[in-house]
Amino acid sequence: xxxxxxxxxxxxxxxxxxxxxxxxxxxxxxxxxxxxxxxxxxxxxxxxxxxxxxxxxxxxxxxxxxxxxxxxxxxxxxxxxxxxxxxxxxxxxxxxxxxxxxxxxxxxxxxxxxxxxxxxxxxxxxxxxxxxxxxxxxxxxxxxxxxxxxxxxxxxxxxxxxxxxxxxxxxxxxxxxxxxxxxxxxxxxxxxxxxxxxxxxxxxxxxxxxxxxxxxxxxxxxxxxxxxxxxxxxxxxxxxxxx
Amino acid sequence: xxxxxxxxxxxxxxxxxxxxxxxxxxxxxxxxxxxxxxxxxxxxxxxxxxxxxxxxxxxxxxxxxxxxxxxxxxxxxxxxxxxxxxxxxxxxxxxxxxxxxxxxxxxxxxxxxxxxxxxxxxxxxxxxxxxxxxxxxxxxxxxxxxxxxxxxxxxxxxxxxxxxxxxxxxxxxxxxxxxxxxxxxxxxxxxxxxxxxxxxxxxxxxxxxxxxxxxxxxxxxxxxxxxxxxxxxxxxxxxxxx
Lengths: 243, 242
What we know:
heterodimer; A: alpha/beta; Rossmann fold; 7-stranded mixed sheet; 20% strand; globular; B: Rossmann fold; 7 strands
């Protein structure tokens, strides 16, 4: 069992070395330098992170499973005290390098989000595209709860359960864990970990619609389509408050 | 107001707004309220999508102010130039770009008279046009900047800004107008642009599952489209004719 756990975690640790030079270049430039659609999607997501966690200068934020730490760096730019944690030392090395180049005061540390104890000192905690790398969401939520001050807020943005199948490429190539949780399961786990006021948000609003007939139809239908197809189509965004 | 006086007010603006105002110019789009910073970042993301900004594309911004959009576009891998009439704005833009180690060219230039020699793939006028009563001259500059087939994107407040902007006009003497989409489309045609498309900005927070949120989400598209002339920004994209 512990062998399996070690293997699983080792794959996450090795991921940045496994993806090659082009992959690492993307980790560095993230969210920029990709296709207009992908770069825009990430920037828009960060905008919603700001709004949903109500992030303002002077607040503290920790990001668990921060990868190369671009959201943590954006939060620091926004005037927050920001800390990013990732299990992969190589990810943390990239995050620190880029932060230094940009002259930002951010702290990045290598740590396992299933075990970390940050001592209930943050106003906000972010899990963005991170949870599905662990089969132990319960442990990750416990870590988030331990990181937050009483009343602090957690936001998590995750792929839907279709990712179990879509993520198989990465899982096959690099041995990393790629799961997909259902909103119902996540809500249950959040409650069990001591979170309240759990709210789900629908992450639509990815592009602007024009006045062409097809765009008008897409615009009007979008809320219905997204709400009905959410389980397979959209990311799951959940916000909760630590008791 | 005579052109000289009108333009002088724009030139003096960064000095007139005080230390706090200038700090905001430097930190833009960050360090404002969550809603405001999110709005600006979302707007930038829509600029990226609508002008298809990706590495290798050339981009110029007219009336760039402190140049935050050009800096983010540079990070996106785009080759950027920003122009503004206020030397002090350009100074701020250059300083911040240098601090961030970014290679952006900023120059002082009057967007009513600029001739950039038809060398850009894309041109942006973001919240800039309403500082000039001569939209025709500004759009001529945009056309003169773009390669044949290049794309212009403009994002402007709606005509309510004629009234909403009185504050800044009164305090600093700057020009704050509001154009209607119809007028802008006509001016674009007259200046040699075709294929003008209008886009509807929907940039509010994400809707939740509370009954009120569901109702707002479902009615949003209708409300925004119906009230666009007074409620939302005007986003127009057009192509420069050969």
